[in-house]
Every structure is written in structure tokens, then in C-alpha cells.
Design a protein that fits this description.
The structure is a homodimer of 337-residue chains.
Chain A lengths: L1 E6 L3 H21 L3 E7 L4 E3 L6 H11 L14 H7 L4 E4 L11 H10 L3 E4 L3 H16 L4 E2 L10 H8 L5 E7 L2 H11 L4 H10 L8 H4 L2 H15 L9 E2 L7 H9 L2 E9 L3 E9 L10 E8 L3 E8 L3 H19 L3
Parallel strand pairs in A: 1-2, 1-4, 4-5, 5-6, 8-10
Antiparallel strand pairs in A: 2-3, 7-9, 7-11, 9-10, 11-12
Chain lengths: 337, 337
Amino acid sequence: MVRIILCGFGVVGQSFAKLLLSRSEDLYAKHGLKARIVGVFDSKGSAASSAGIDLNRLLETKKLYGNIAKYHNKEKKANGLDMINGMEAEVLIETTPSNYKDAEPGMSHIVSAMKRGLHVVTVNKGPLALAFPSLIELAAYNQVQLKFSGTVGGGTPILDYAKNSLRGERIVSFQGILNGTTNYILTNMAGGMNFKEALSDAKKKGYVEADESLDIEGFDAAAKLVILANWIMDMKVTIMDIKRKGIRDVTTTDITNARSRRSAVKLIASCNRDLEVSPREIPLDDPLCVNGTLNAITFNSEHSGQQTIIGRGAGGMETASSILRDLLDIKQEVGKI
Amino acid sequence: MVRIILCGFGVVGQSFAKLLLSRSEDLYAKHGLKARIVGVFDSKGSAASSAGIDLNRLLETKKLYGNIAKYHNKEKKANGLDMINGMEAEVLIETTPSNYKDAEPGMSHIVSAMKRGLHVVTVNKGPLALAFPSLIELAAYNQVQLKFSGTVGGGTPILDYAKNSLRGERIVSFQGILNGTTNYILTNMAGGMNFKEALSDAKKKGYVEADESLDIEGFDAAAKLVILANWIMDMKVTIMDIKRKGIRDVTTTDITNARSRRSAVKLIASCNRDLEVSPREIPLDDPLCVNGTLNAITFNSEHSGQQTIIGRGAGGMETASSILRDLLDIKQEVGKI
């Protein structure tokens, strides 16, 4: 039995709850995984039950009231850290929004949980972007697992592919389109919109983060680059080490000029000698040159040439699916939890 | 110490020998793998040494005489099965040419080796295409590992990605360009050549199998589809179950018509309800629509949407790299060998 504390109950948290409901039998039969969410909190409220929260009722409550506090008869004010420090559990799942200033509240959640001996699955990139090397050390020191496969590529297991499927092979460098929102905007600009129109369309579709600079200025792509560089290339870097330039200054002229060279302008995150996020021209027939909200990454390997993985970069169910993968990994690596 | 018998010393076998030479220190330091080739044979000769063959001298011999028999002072006639049945070894690596009639000589090599308790790494697709389900059973019965990651995607670990990186996820269907030679021909036809010219150009480049029908008639793609269907979808099928149509009848008119619909004609192997290899139109902006000798496959997953992997499909060093990956896997799964 894995007892879980879930931080954040937005799109990803709710999708994860739905996934657990729909897959519970299959997960037990195929992987021996029995998971029970014992605590959930977000910025507005919390719900807890050591016997396991009724996820159907929790989802219903959220839908009716836009808030989970009413899950209990008496409204409970969320105090996430109290829950993390007080409840019996094995795993913390961190899904609160990424923040690249101080990484809070996710940083405190993760650090507190690991200090208490909880394994952590995070899809929040903030703590990793600001402190990847020290969080890995803290996990090792406390002998807990820290998993984050949903932070890069959403449901597309890019990190796993590079680390495991390519074992015995050396990755020399890589470059990728790691942010779907900016790719959507640049694709629309290639279709004739100007930057402002394309941004406004992306906002209408719900693709843009509440703080638009996270996408537009390249913070999100830079955070993913930090995670890839640490995890795959054994670098010890943070977001401060990334040379970063967003897409705000990309003009329709740049895009037209690129097209005359049979290329497209894409926001590329690359790890070669330097770590850099910036708009660059990519040949139209390069497998990396994908459109819409797709993400893509090309690994340059020593013996197997270039390998490109393309997939949806985000989405609640995709990310929830990556959390499940991490849970299964923890179960496998730790043994009985 | 892993003692290896290597069947076949063509491009792949030689690349593997070179890879072992260049990586031996690193393999031991990073993965604890010490590998020694104790026997090598091909259709023209053989070399054996229980203390380990001097790979530099073996490669030199092959280069000078086009034959490895002169590795010893007296010329030795190859008798592969005697070697497999007589020598002390832990792993058989099978790299002889694929054959879709009776899968020989690879089939006898693999079956004899497994019966003797040797683990097997094969990049020869013939035995798997004709008898995947029974070979898997034979491996289980003899408690040996049967690995074949180089049979699909060359150095691109497609099988591993689908089986492992997507664990906890369900693959519903997939479709791919699994043969680089036909993709090269179709790409050249899209560039203006007719089929005959494009085939002749591919032959000049050394991309076409000695028996051209293996590529052109879709046997190679069908064999890979069999392996994917068995391994990833848990089907129990052989090449007899594949609906197969090659590219010989594709005309420049078909290709021009496709382009007017912003599509390209590709030889697609698909697993949906049916298993089929045939030329089909793919939209130009589909990530699957790659050119030249590239391979690509799109997995349709239940929760993570479509995921596409693109890479070089073949090449001596790429395939050798996949053999190394399989060896590392065997070492990890079996423990001390």
C-alpha cells in the first residue's frame, strides 16, 4: 500500500485522481500497486483521511465548489506543511505551479517531505530549476527517491529514454523544442499572424501560463534544459547557468526570411558546450521542426547518430500518466512500500 | 567475464568487434562488463580461442584476406554449429543475414545455443519473423535471455522505448516507416526520379540488400512489424500474418497526386486491428513523414497521445551499439555472468 500526499489539485492533480480511479484494478493486477491518497491540499483548502480519500467525492466537491475544503463537513483551511510533517505517508506528489524566483511553495513541500523520509514525485519544475544538484543530494542523504519524469515532455518519457533506453551509448549533445506554447505561437506566426495576435490566440486556447513570461521569455524551456543537463549530461547547473532569450522580439519578417531559406524559427533549448534557450532557424525537413503545441528533442549520440522524440508536451492526463510511471518506478526500486 | 560466440563477421560483426575494442575500459568501469569473444565464424571460415580472440588481429586478417580463417596458422573451415555446441561460452551473438524462407542458418544457431543454456543476442530478423512465439517459449524453458533490440530501428531503441519508457501506459496502436531503403527510394522519387532510377541509386549507395526483394517487397518491414507486434502488443504472430505489399508498383504519378494533397507516399507498417505493410499517403506535416534513409514510428498511447521516435534505421555501428545494450541488459538481468 502506497499512501500519498498530493500537493495541488489543479488540472494535473485532478487528472491524477481520475487516472487512479480508472486504473486501480489494472495497476494492482499488472504491477502490484495499491495507491491511496490520504491527504490533498492546495492554496484554498485541504482534505485528509488516513483511511484514504474518496476520490469520486473529492472530484465532485472540487467541481461543485471550485475548492476541496468542503470535502469535510467543516471547512478546513489548508496548511500543507503541517500535513506533510504530520501525516503517515510514503510518497509526496508535488503539482503546485512552477515559480522561478524562490520555487515556493513547492520547494518547502519537497524538502520537508524528503527530510521526513517520504519519496517525492514532482511535476513542479521550479525547485529543480533552482536547486537540482542540492535536491538530488538531499534525496540521497535521506535515502528517498526523487522522481520528475513529468517535468520534461509531459507524457512523452524523454528523460527516461535518454537515461535508460540509450544506456551503453553516450549522448554528446542535444537540442529541442521544449515549450509547446511558444511553438504554437511561432507556428501561428508562420501562418500569417503577428506576435500579438498569436499570443492572444494561444491565451484563448488556454495554452499560456498565468504569468505569460514563463512561456514567452523562455523560463519554462530553460527549467527543462536545467533538468535535462543535470540528469542526462551529469552537469551540476541551475537556471542561472542558462543563456536565455525568449520569443517576444521575433518578428514576422524574421519568420518570412527563415522560410525563404526553407527554415522555420523555433525556440530552441540546446546543450552543447553552452546551455542556451533562444529563437533559432531550423530547416523545415529537420525532424526537430515540428508544429503546433508539439515538443521535440534530438539527441546526438556517439554511435547511434541523431535520434528525435516527438510528442505532446503537456496536458493534464499526459502529466498524470507520467506521475503514475514515477510511482511504479519508486515501487520497483524501493521494493515494498 | 562474458564469453561470446559471434556468428557472422560482416559489417555488423566487425563493427561490434571495433566497439568492444574502443569501449572495453569504459564498459568495465561504468557497467562492470568484461566481454571476451572466444569464437567467430561466418560462411567462409572461423577463428576460436578460449583465452579470447585478439580482435585487432582478427579485424586485420579480415581486411587483408576478406576471410577470418587465416587468423590461425592453418586455415580452418567454419562449422558454426560445432562451435556453438562445443565451446564454453555464455552468450551467442547472431549477425548472419536475414532469410524469410527458413530463417537458416540463424535459426539453427539460436536454437542450438539456447538449448545449451547460452543467452542470445540476435540482430538477424529471420528467426524472429518466422517463429517469434516459439523462440520466446524456448528461451523461457531453457531459462536464458533472448535479446533483439537491434532488429528494429538499428541504433534507435524503439523496442525498449515502447516496452519500458512507456510502462504504466497502454499502447493502443502504432504505425511506422521501418525500412530505410524504401524510404530513400520513395524520397528520391518525390524528388523527380522514377522507381528504376531511384532503386539503382540506392543500390549504388549500398543501401539495398543482396536480395532486393527483402526491401522492395516489404519483407524487412514486415519482419520488424512481427517483432513489434509480439513484443509490444503481446500478439502471437509470424510473418505469415502480415498483409504485405511492397513499393514496386508505386508510380511517380501516385507521388505527384499525393503531393497535391500535401502528402507523401511512404511504406507504412501498421498495427491496428490488422497487421499491414503497404505504401500509404502520409501528410507532409505529420511527424512520421521523414525523408531519406530515416526510420520513424508513432505509438498511439491511451493517456499520452501520439509519440514519435525518429532515427537512423541501420548502419554497422548503430547496430553494434544495440548489441552492446543487449549485453548490458543480459548482465543486469542475469546477474553474474
